[in-house]
């Protein structure tokens, strides 16, 4: 069990989301950076889809009521465990009664904390993800509050083996690490790869040029649904209206303001704004960490390359999965 | 029908670029054909006004046999084959759903505004709104929110310049040429003309929604006393 001493700004229980219900207006949602969440779960020996904790901007203070294993990745909140720094990207032992404290994000904006066994909240429509808009999933369909108690499943066989070996050696955390940002072929810092969107041709030539040539600034208007960027005004030529159509995570919509919005997993299921581009799935996680004022540029890649990047990253993750299974066994 | 990529994890099937009954039927047929028995690697299929979106997991598409450099073409070909030869389970008769609505008063604070715009008495607005038959084009914006086509032209009313901070659950509303029902309490700029005691979003059921794309909808006026009775039955 985990007791929430302080909730942080927006701490929620998430898994890999609720696919299959977009036809009913329900967002897929789930951990905003699904890949980071999958890795954190693998590191503690969980199923990739186990429910974990997503942290945003200001982290929570949590108390663990029994001994377990945790792992975190994502932005740096300078977390501590019993007062000592909590190393990232590795399985770390937490003793019964110990306090885990996440501070204010120093780099990035969000982090994911996996707990061996996963968090035991009820499945709603096939997922444990918190979905605020409908008030379902996670812990009572809402962000965590002080005093909440989260039941957890017991550590699985692999987690228990890692925990036992750490105890024998008197170590806090494993020597090995798995850094999600090193898997696949990451884009350089400040760059995200993107393809042209379905309405690319609707945009004026200057807008097309500006989209890939400019440094876009992240604004404060950012939530689990999307991130609004600031930069040159992207105009249509000639102006026209679109009939609402389905959207996808990573699509870059341009409302009449001319300032693009990058859609994240809790986006609406349909949108009515022209879609100038689509961020490659492997780089969508970048938008979950952008701090207001930080800049990104879009680098244009063809669809086949974007698909290939996904496959490469999955192959790398498979290697990690096999390696971890050997370590724990 | 055209197939266009929607990023690197979805394909968009485009059936036209305006809203009409024939395109609506094509969208319905394609959606049912693809959703009834999912193609390998396809995680979900969602209809909109003139498009159907097929979401896929590239890893699973490759596992299903797609050559790595031909993933989109391979999947598009499977989609086209399926649409030519839809499974029998895809044939679903459109359902008719009657929605009880308590019009006006505290439940429909904008009924007067719609009436003034239409130059009609409020009870005539109620008559026309509830006599028409509507089609659910898609469910979107929020869980269970139906976009309904078929609003009588004289009832078309512009949205409020300043949206309400919170629209009560079950509100039946007119926004421009559209009419819809709010399944959750959200901010909204549409004109509220009544409220239904029915729940549109029911996460404990499958499907979790009262209305689905393709359904035919009519509204039945009820009195405040009947509204209260409905709510008692629900509780």
TrEMBL record, chain A:
GO terms for molecular function: ATP binding; hydrolase activity. Pfam families: CT_A_B. SMART domains: AHS2. SUPFAM superfamilies: Cyclophilin-like. Transmembrane segments: none annotated. Residues 23-316 form the Carboxyltransferase domain. InterPro entries: CT_A_B, Cyclophilin-like_dom_sf, PxpC. Keywords: ATP-binding, Hydrolase, Nucleotide-binding. The keyword ATP-binding applies. This is KipI antagonist. It comes from Lacunisphaera limnophila. The lineage of its organism: Bacteria, Pseudomonadati, Verrucomicrobiota, Opitutia, Opitutales. The gene is kipA.
TrEMBL record, chain B:
Residues 1-211 form the Carboxyltransferase domain. Signal peptide: none annotated. Keywords: ATP-binding, Hydrolase, Kinase, Nucleotide-binding, Transferase. One of its GO terms (molecular function) is hydrolase activity. InterPro entries: CT_C_D, Cyclophilin-like_dom_sf, PxpB. NCBIfam families: 5-oxoprolinase subunit PxpB. This is Kinase A inhibitor. It comes from Lacunisphaera limnophila.
């Amino acid at each position: 069990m985990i007791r929430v001493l302080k909730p942080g700004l927006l701490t929620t229980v998430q898994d890999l989301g609720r696919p299959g219900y977009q036809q009913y207006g329900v967002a897929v949602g789930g951990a905003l950076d699904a890949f980071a969440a999958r890795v954190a779960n693998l590191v503690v020996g969980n199923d990739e889809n186990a429910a974990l904790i997503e942290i945003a901007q200001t982290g929570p203070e949590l108390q663990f009521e029994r001994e377990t294993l945790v792992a975190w990745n994502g932005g740096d909140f300078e977390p501590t465990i019993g007062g000592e720094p909590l190393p990232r990207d590795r399985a770390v032992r937490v003793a019964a009664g110990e306090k885990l404290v996440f501070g204010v994000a120093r780099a990035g904006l969000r982090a994911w904390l996996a707990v061996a066994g996963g968090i035991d909240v009820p499945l709603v429509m096939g997922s444990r993800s918190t979905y605020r808009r409908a008030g379902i999933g996670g812990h009572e369909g809402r962000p965590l509050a002080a005093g909440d108690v989260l039941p957890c499943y017991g550590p699985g066989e692999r987690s228990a083996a890692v925990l036992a070996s750490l105890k024998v050696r008197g170590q806090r955390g494993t020597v090995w690490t798995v850094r999600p940002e090193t898997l696949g072929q990451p884009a350089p810092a400040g760059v995200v790869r993107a393809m042209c969107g379905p309405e690319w041709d609707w945009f004026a030539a200057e807008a097309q040029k500006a989209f890939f040539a400019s440094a876009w600034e992240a604004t404060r208007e950012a939530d689990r649904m999307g991130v609004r960027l600031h930069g040159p005004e992207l105009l249509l030529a000639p102006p026209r209206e679109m009939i609402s159509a389905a959207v996808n995570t990573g699509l870059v919509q341009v409302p009449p303001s001319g300032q693009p919005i990058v859609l994240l997993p809790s986006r609406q299921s349909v949108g009515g704004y022209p879609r100038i581009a689509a961020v490659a799935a492997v780089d969508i996680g970048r938008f979950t960490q952008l701090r207001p004022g930080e800049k990104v540029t879009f680098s244009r890649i063809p669809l086949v390359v974007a698909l290939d990047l996904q496959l490469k990253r999955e192959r790398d993750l498979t290697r990690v999965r096999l390696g971890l299974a050997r370590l724990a066994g | 029908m055209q197939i266009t990529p929607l990023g690197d994890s979805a394909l968009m099937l485009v059936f036209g670029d305006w809203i009409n009954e024939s395109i609506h039927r094509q969208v319905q047929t394609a959606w049912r054909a693809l959703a009834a028995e999912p193609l390998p690697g396809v995680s979900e299929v969602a209809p909109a006004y003139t498009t159907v979106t097929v979401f896929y997991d590239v890893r699973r598409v490759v596992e299903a046999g797609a050559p790595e450099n031909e993933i989109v073409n391979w999947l598009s070909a499977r989609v086209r084959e399926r649409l030519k030869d839809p499974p029998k389970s895809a044939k679903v008769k459109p359902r008719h759903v009657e929605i009880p609505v308590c019009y006006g008063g505290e439940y429909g604070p904008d009924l007067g505004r719609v009436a003034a715009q239409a130059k009609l008495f409020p009870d005539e607005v109620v008559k026309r709104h509830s006599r028409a038959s509507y089609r659910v084009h898609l469910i979107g914006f929020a869980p269970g929110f139906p976009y309904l086509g078929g609003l009588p032209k004289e009832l078309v009313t512009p949205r409020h310049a300043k949206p309400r901070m919170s629209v009560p659950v079950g509100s039946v509303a007119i926004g421009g040429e559209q009419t819809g029902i709010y399944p959750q309490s959200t901010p909204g700029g549409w004109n509220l003309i009544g409220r239904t005691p029915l729940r549109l979003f029911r996460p404990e059921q499958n499907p979790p929604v009262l209305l689905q794309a393709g359904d035919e909808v009519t509204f039945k006026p009820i009195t405040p006393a009947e509204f209260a009775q409905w709510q008692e039955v629900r509780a």
